[in-house]
Amino acid sequence: MKNFRIACLPGDGIGLEVMSAAQDVLQTAAEIHGGVVFDFTNFPWGSDYYVENGLMMPEDGIRQLKEFDTVFLGAVGNPKLVPDHISLWGMLIKIRRELELSLNVRPARVLRGIDSPLHSPNDFNFIVVRENSEGEYSEAGGVIHNGPDEIAVQNGIFTRKATERAIRYAFKLAKKRGSKVTSATKSNGIVHSMPFWDRIFNEVAAEYPDVETRSVHIDALSAFLVTKPETFDVIVASNLFGDILTDLGGAIMGSIGIAPSANLNPEGKYPSMFEPVHGSAPDIAGQGKANPLGQVWTASMMLDHLGLPELGAAILEACEEVTGEGIKTPDIGGTSSTEEVTAAICSALRKKA
Amino acid sequence: MKNFRIACLPGDGIGLEVMSAAQDVLQTAAEIHGGVVFDFTNFPWGSDYYVENGLMMPEDGIRQLKEFDTVFLGAVGNPKLVPDHISLWGMLIKIRRELELSLNVRPARVLRGIDSPLHSPNDFNFIVVRENSEGEYSEAGGVIHNGPDEIAVQNGIFTRKATERAIRYAFKLAKKRGSKVTSATKSNGIVHSMPFWDRIFNEVAAEYPDVETRSVHIDALSAFLVTKPETFDVIVASNLFGDILTDLGGAIMGSIGIAPSANLNPEGKYPSMFEPVHGSAPDIAGQGKANPLGQVWTASMMLDHLGLPELGAAILEACEEVTGEGIKTPDIGGTSSTEEVTAAICSALRKKA
Ligand SMILES: CC(C)[C@H](C(=O)O)[C@@H](O)C(=O)O
Ligand SMILES: CC(C)[C@H](C(=O)O)[C@@H](O)C(=O)O
Question: Which parts of the sequence belong to the Isopropylmalate dehydrogenase-like domain (chains A, B) (predicted)?
């Protein structure tokens, strides 16, 4: 019997509902597998915790997480209780940085039975590899002067190490998929970091002469995800550009509530973290309307990472059987609740046993 | 007879074709009006000029442009001849900055007879007000160290003056349209410039208590332009975010080749500049395939600015008559050439005389 220790951080808002859903699905997966145990430890960290303790997570929170095989996160943020930059930098971004989760991998395709808002979604199937540790998301900078003279300076910091790591991962992935790599740039407007990014992209590309490449400015690339998403395979992007492209990916998949992601520590030094692309959606929290698919698909990516790719695939197939039957939450045109969709996924999984 | 002196910069690639198209339409508009003359002066500046002269435009180019009532620009950039950051900072961005064109105003809606790639485009009609003089597009920063230690630092600089100016313009516009204002932010990830932006947005909003407001993170906002574009009226955004949102706007309008823009000098100290959202598209240049609608719609915005709103409206109506009849370039599913579409617009205009 193989035991996996999973640190679960439901977080805020619908994070709690979708976490509970995904845990049910994972337990069902363990049952049908027979040889694995998922040992969940739930941590009540997040905005409510902040209100009580003045911190999003305990001082030694990162140390605690390092004891686990993986971290499974719901969603963080409740701007009514804590300003977003405090809640995110105190938890989600803190975990990404301190566990050195330098890559954020986010696939996008349309699941069976789900309507894309696009006329002809043309069977797109791409993966965004997002640099996850630096770049535009930076605490360097500040505000000077007061009144009419006030000026904010925001420093983006791009190291060769992190840039090259993300780009190299994208090329390895493309080689495995037999696909091409598109680089998101904006070197026509942003004249230091983006030409630097382009230069490293071209260097790494030279090592993979059989992988087709393209650099596209982020404005045009965003538009292409709407007009011709089927032309992309692997897209590599900076932290901010990857953030934008993957929400767009969620939109064309039919709902941001479906999109999954893996925050990887590529060296395996610390546990990797798995969280859906969507946020905590405080406006619909507690109403049973949250789409569990993003968190469940994320669970499937976590199983791939844990060396259980067949079990991961079974979960995703079960999801598609359920959506294919029209059992869906309201955000994707259905009338089912979070619990109903979850129960249907579990029963589809059991039928595979 | 009122004479308008217009500096025309066709630029590169399809810029030449769409400029010539829009000049034809403007001359036709002058004919039917009877009381105005458009006096075009063409400047051959751009990437070819760079190859000959080592500069995108002459040293005293900006001084020359200041003599005109408006500047009308096609598209700049030909990466085969000049790296993008050199061509753009040597011409388009240089003109924006040195003529103090601090606002970039870009409307988005679907013209009659044009298919949006969205299933149910739901009659959206919004305007993006983009800060056009600073922010993420910045020459501040650089690269230090070599080899594995290389680091690029990119400074974004946000002044209260420019930020407030863009936001205030958005509120005035919203008040005129009786609409609401959405602010594009990313203060959860970008912790100096974006909280600063939010703070100024909230301050200005307090002066307009009857204008409804919303702040949305750029990732979610990009997704919403795909899933519910009809919920937006006026969107105010930083330089980079406005760039991304308006290419997305072009995408959901059916083609980036349709979207117009006005680069405004709000004080009227220098001429304003009018250019379509699309680029120079070197891949299709010279083939008669370029969509002239973006440049022609831009001409219509220029006429509004010159105090000829009825003539501007007549041009846009003529465009919709033509697209409504299915006379369209290939990018929007038609089979007509640039010249055919242009001739049809001119003849639709003449019928209005
Ligand atoms: C919540 C926010 C800080 C986060 C990000 O921008 O990284 C989210 O949008 C994401 O994509 O994971
Ligand atoms: C060509 C480029 C520098 C420019 C910009 O980013 O401003 C263009 O994309 C635009 O939107 O006008």
Answer: 5-345
Q: Which residues are within 8 A (CB) of A184 and not within 5 positions of it... i.e. 6 or more apart?
A: A216, A217, A218, A221, A235, A236, A237, A238, A241, A242, A245
Query: What distances in angstroms separate CA B75 from CA A41, B165, B295, one per listed residue?
Result: 57, 26, 10
> Which of B116, B226, B256 has its CB closest to that of A251?
B226
Is residue A259 in a domain? no
Residues A76 and A15 reside in one and the same domain: yes
Whether residues B195 and A85 touch (CB distance < 8 A) is answered with yes
Q: Is-contact B249 B184, C-beta < 8 A? A: no
Residue B67 CA to residue B98 CA, distance in Å, equals 14
Per-residue DSSP letter, A232? -
Are the C-beta atoms of residues A183 and A236 closer than 8 Å to each other?
yes
CA distance A83 to chain B (A): 8
Give the residue from B154, B321, B23, B16 showing the smallest Cα distance to A153: B154
Closest C-alpha among B57, B114, B35, B89 to residue B297? B114
Q: What tokens does B111 get? A: 């013209």
pLDDT band of residue A173 (cuts 50, 70, 90) is: very high
The answer to whether residues A127 and A249 belong to one domain is yes
Looking at beta carbons, which residues of chain A come within 8 Å of B87? 188
Residue at token pair 């930083």? B238
Give the pLDDT of residue B122: 76
Chains A–B, number of C-beta pairs less than 8 Å apart: 216
Q: Assess if residue B110 is contained within a domain.
A: no
Q: What is the pLDDT of residues A313-325, one digit of tens each?
A: 999 999 999 999 9
Give B172-237 as a DSSP string.
Answer: HHHHHHT--EEEEE-TTT-TTHHHHHHHHHHHHHHT-TTS-EEEEEHHHHHHHHHH-GGG-SEEEE
Residues of chain B positioned with their CB less than 8 A from the CB of A192: 139, 141-143, 152-154
Q: Which residues pair with A36 in a beta bridge?
A: A2
pLDDT of residue A179: 87
Q: Which residue range is the domain that position A171 belongs to?
A: 116-253
Contact between B72 and B8 (Cβ < 8 Å): yes
CATH number of the domain that residue A6 is part of: 3.40.718.10
Collapsing DSSP states into helix, strand and coil, what is residue B287? coil
Q: What is the mean pLDDT of residues A47-71?
A: 98
Distance from CA of B214 to the nearest CA of A (A): 13
